[in-house]
Amino acid sequence: MRTLTAVTGAVLAAAGAAVLAVAAGPLGGGPVLWPALVRYPAGHHGFWPVVAALLELAGLAATASLLAQVRDAAHRRLPAVDGPTRMLTRAAGRDLRRRALKVPGVRDARLRFTGTRARPRLVMTVTCPTDAPLAEVCAALREGPVARYREAVGLDGLVVVLRFTLEYQQAKLL
Amino acid sequence: MGETLVTELIEDVEARQRAGRLALGEFRARRTALGIAVALLVAGATGTAALEILSRMAGWPAGLLPVHRIAAGLRATAWHDRRVVAAGGLMLAAGVALAAAALPGRLRMVPLRGGDGDLAAGLSRAAVVRVLDEAVRAVPGVERSRVRLRGLVHRRVEVRAHTGFRNAGNLPELIRAAVGERMERLGLLQSRTVEVQLSWRRD
After folding, report:
1. Chain A to chain B, count of Cβ pairs less than 8 Å apart?
2. pLDDT on residue A171
3. Chain A residues with CB inside 8 Å of B184's CB?
4. pLDDT, tens digit, for every residue of B163-196?
5. Residue B148 covered by a domain
6. Hey, what domains does chain A have and what are their CATH numbers?
7. Can you tell me the ipTM of this complex?
8. Which of A16, B112, B154, B192 could in theory staple to B91 by disulfide, Cβ–Cβ 3.0 to 4.6 A?
9. What is the side-by-side strand order in the sheet with A159-167?
10. How close, in Å, is residue A57 to chain B by CA atoms?
């Protein structure tokens, strides 16, 4: 996903460095578009078609990258599964939340099912007190409610992401 | 029996490694907005230029770009012209910034242990800092403290603390132990060394 950004950055940096190098060198006094450069395409008939083909290739690569990034971003936020699967994940999600709240140290749990049937993903935001042993909470969730959820929805390779947030105890002065 | 144990150990290590890879992949900075913006710009710029060239080759100039005006301007401008140098500098700076943005960078969340190959767990950096700071302040004698998570390769926790004692004694070791114990309870996936800088009363 970052390849296009890296390549664009490298090309821009190289072009910028070349401009600065020429400006600082012996050719610095000459025009940017010097006569020999203007005459070159006229003597080489394949010049403009090659330039156009290279530009088209770069444009196609950028478009493919754009589509891939938009699709990836959408699949990370929204579910792209059929109706029955969505209903199943919703029902299993309610059960998962109820069971998760019974795990010691868990104050709240919010769920979001995203991804496709081939690459399903469940994002679970779990709120715990600041002194909670998160490693133990994580293991308890994995072995109990999450394992049960996996069985219930029956999706192979379901990726579960646990995002912990801490509930700070505010000191009440009044 | 022994063989089973070794196999289980290897599977356990593999599961932990897969969990680590999943967590790192899940919590790395996405930079989706930047990626989409760059892709849009590149697609737009190259598409426009290609269309202009192809239309001119076909004898029907699209007129998307003021080619003659640009060419005349470039013929009349010298390389060491201030505008050309500024454009070159801008291109170099933008290129370096884009290349730097494409590097992996800092994770959005601090990954936690306890996952399997299909489960990743994480806690925000701010929350980790706050929890560790509370652990430092709970050490008797510490009056003020500031905790920071540092380093992309050599990961460490930097603690700056102040004590009202005139003789700090083994306070740095106590702070280090408190932070280490709290990190163990959190179950951070990547180990971090603890660096303590302690100041104390001079009067």
Report:
1. 230
2. 47
3. 135
4. 988 888 889 999 999 999 999 888 888 889 999 9
5. yes
6. 3-75 (no CATH), 80-167 (3.30.70.1350)
7. 0.80
8. A16
9. A79-80, A108-116, A120-129, A159-167, B119-124, B109-112
10. 9
Which tokens sit at B99?
């290349």
CA distance A158 to B144: 45
- H-run or E-run covering B169: none
Q: What's the pLDDT tens digit per position in B107-165?
A: 889 998 866 778 889 999 999 999 999 999 999 989 999 999 998 888 899 999 999 88
What type of residue is B123?
A: L
Q: What is the mean pLDDT of residues A29-35?
A: 86
Q: How many domains does chain B have?
A: 1
Tokens 């003789």 correspond to B167
Q: Answer whether residue A58 shows pLDDT above 90.
A: yes
d(CA B177, CA B142): 14
Paired residues of B199 in beta bridges? B162
For A29, which residue in chain B has the nearest alpha carbon? B78
**Interface touch A52/B34, C-beta < 8 Å:** no
Residue for token digits 């884009």?
Answer: B98
CB-CB contact of A6 with B38 (8 Å) = no
Asked if the structure places residue B143 within a domain, the reply is: yes
**With an 8 Å Cβ cutoff, are B122 and A161 in contact?**
yes
